[in-house]
Design a protein that fits this description.
It is built from 14 helices and 19 strands. The protein is α/β, with parallel strands linked by helices. Bound molecules: calcium ion (2 copies).
Length: about 500
């Protein structure tokens, strides 16, 4: 009787201090598309650690960002609020803190994911790029410093000081090229950083995260690690370039006149510069090298977790903020609504819940992450959340998910947002001017053939269009009155 009582006491005590709750390792990657080996497996790609992670996770092979740009996608993940309610569809710069709270009424009091975990007994630490920030805009970050127990470095400038630039990019940036390089200053470029990897941003952030995993704490850990590569500039050390000899680099599949039945994205000038200057293979090589570099950092995190003693009781979530083009549809980077732009790697490992090594094509929007993590850790789901828990699919990857994925973006010059939805096979894009594109991703993975005018697909199209809300928030403006507005000019 006495032992029974003691056991009960220990159980209640453990529950009270939150020790029974699993830790969360929350890994965010920037601009990583589906080229990695567990997804589309771009020819020659070397990503052994994504393979390793996929073998112990459920791979969500049809997951989509809420918006195809860093800032809106990340705010949607970290608040669970979709752009169609917040009105945050695009990147916004010149912030020194969570300016989005002042941009969107809906987000004014939104509880950030890490804060929600803190409110329920977790110790929440973050490092690197979780909210939007860039290598080349010091002090310009949308992070919310109040949502963490600890943030690595300056939470309002978490990455800009961490990244060295190759010497060669600092001079004669346009020498020998036709036309002006997009973005200038070689930020859209690929080059070798001579210095050792261990002095580069993501390596330093992972070093910091490894130390957090080693520390002993009474509270469960919510550890957010934001990796910046393979975001441009594609600058990593030589050994990553050596994995991809230029003569073996493959260009993406290309269809002449592909854009004739699609809406142009307004970024063809970048592709023109790339092809005119014969930079296509060189830039793809840099992107692949940057992917293998970040794969290595993921491996370091997994090694550290496995040797920390936390392995058996730690949920791992790895996501990317959106997909990426390296010339597909004459586009570079993101800012479009095709599958190539919005589809993201998403892996979830939940000890005792998820089925290791499984894959599902049921559609996911990244706003599903917030309620999923609540569900897995027994936390209440805040009212602000728009997504649905993925725990049913973690338990059974064949379990049908009724809702479609929803990605929204307001193109430059448009007065209203455009939207895209996916089910397990088809993808419908509805632009704000009424133009539509429909793709059968089973038969046409490159989205070459727009079926929206084909009468055989009317039913499929109307079914998919039900996933697009009738009422959506308008694009929010920039409130100069916000205390988080950067008053000074970025250097
Ligand atoms: Ca991004
Ligand atoms: Ca086409």
């Amino acid at each position: 009787m006495k032992n029974w009582f003691l056991a009960l006491f220990v159980l209640v005590w453990a529950w009270a201090i939150g020790e029974s709750k699993p830790n969360v390792l929350f890994i965010s990657i920037d601009d990583l598309n589906d080229y990695i080996s567990p997804l589309d497996n771009h020819p020659g790609i070397k990503t052994p650690h994504f393979d390793r992670l996929s073998k112990r996770s459920v791979t969500f092979a049809n997951a989509h960002c809420a918006a195809p740009a860093c800032h809106p996608s990340r705010v949607a993940v970290m608040t669970g609020v979709h752009p169609v309610r917040s009105g945050i569809y695009r990147n916004m710069f010149r912030a020194h803190g969570p300016r989005w709270r002042h941009e969107s009424k809906v987000l004014e009091k939104a509880v950030v994911l890490s804060q929600h975990f803190r409110d329920h007994g977790y110790w929440a630490a973050g490092g690197g790029k979780i909210f939007h920030t860039l290598q080349w805009t010091p002090g310009d970050s949308q992070n919310d410093p109040d949502a963490w127990d600890e943030y690595r470095g300056d939470p309002l400038d978490p990455i800009s000081g961490d990244w060295p630039r190759p010497e060669s990019t600092k001079v004669n940036q346009n020498e020998g090229f036709i036309g002006k390089r997009p973005l200038g200053n070689h930020y859209f470029g690929a080059a070798v950083i001579e210095e050792d990897d261990e002095t580069h941003g993501d390596h330093l952030v992972v070093d910091w995260a490894i130390e957090r995993m080693k520390e002993k704490r009474d509270n469960p850990l919510f550890l957010a690690v934001g990796l910046f590569r393979p975001h441009i500039p594609f600058e990593v050390s030589q050994k990553w370039f050596d994995l991809y000899p230029i003569e073996k680099v493959r260009l993406p599949e290309y269809l002449k006149n592909d854009l004739e039945d699609a809406r142009p994205h307004g970024r063809m000038g970048w592709h023109k510069w790339v092809t005119e200057n014969k930079q296509w293979k060189h830039l793809i090589r840099g992107y692949l090298a940057s992917i293998s570099y970040v794969d290595h950092q993921v491996g370091r995190l997994l090694d550290a977790l496995d040797s920390s003693g936390l392995k058996e009781n730690t949920i791992i979530v790895l996501w990317t903020d959106h997909g990426f083009h390296v010339g597909e549809k004459e586009n570079w980077e993101k800012f479009a609504l095709w599958d190539q732009t919005t589809r993201v790697p998403l892996f979830i490992h939940a000890p005792g819940v998820s089925e290791d090594g499984m894959k599902t094509r049921h559609p996911v929007t990244l706003t599903d992450l917030y309620p999923t993590l609540c569900d897995l850790t027994g936390l209440p789901v805040p009212d602000q959340c728009d997504g649905k828990s993925l725990v049913p699919q973690l338990k059974n990857p064949d379990k049908k998910k009724k809702s479609l994925s929803l990605t929204s973006f307001q193109f430059w010059g448009d007065s209203a947002p455009s939207h895209a939805v996916s089910n397990h096979r088809y993808r419908l894009i509805q632009y704000s001017d009424g133009f539509e594109e429909l793709y059968d991703l089973k038969k046409d993975i490159h989205e070459f053939h727009n079926l929206s005018e084909d009468p055989n697909f009317l039913k499929i199209k109307s079914r998919l269009s039900l996933g697009i809300p009738k009422e959506t928030a308008g694009l929010v403006g920039i409130p100069t009155s916000s205390p988080y507005n950067l008053k000074h000019k970025s250097k």
